[in-house]
Amino acid sequence: MGLYRDHVVPRLVELTCGAKGIERFRRSAMEGLSGRVLEIGFGSGLNVPHYPDGVTEVLAVEPAATARRIAEARISASEVPVLHVGLDGQSVELPDASCDAALCTFSLCTIPDPAAALGEVARILVAGGRLHLLEHGVAPDPGIARWQRRIDPIERRIADGCHLSRDPVGLLEAAGFGVERLEQRYVAGPKPWSYFTIAVASSPSAA
Ligand SMILES: C[S@@+](CC[C@H](N)C(=O)[O-])C[C@H]1O[C@@H](n2cnc3c(N)ncnc32)[C@H](O)[C@@H]1O
Question: Quick count: other Cβ atoms within 10 Å of Cβ 84?
Answer without folding.
Answer: 14
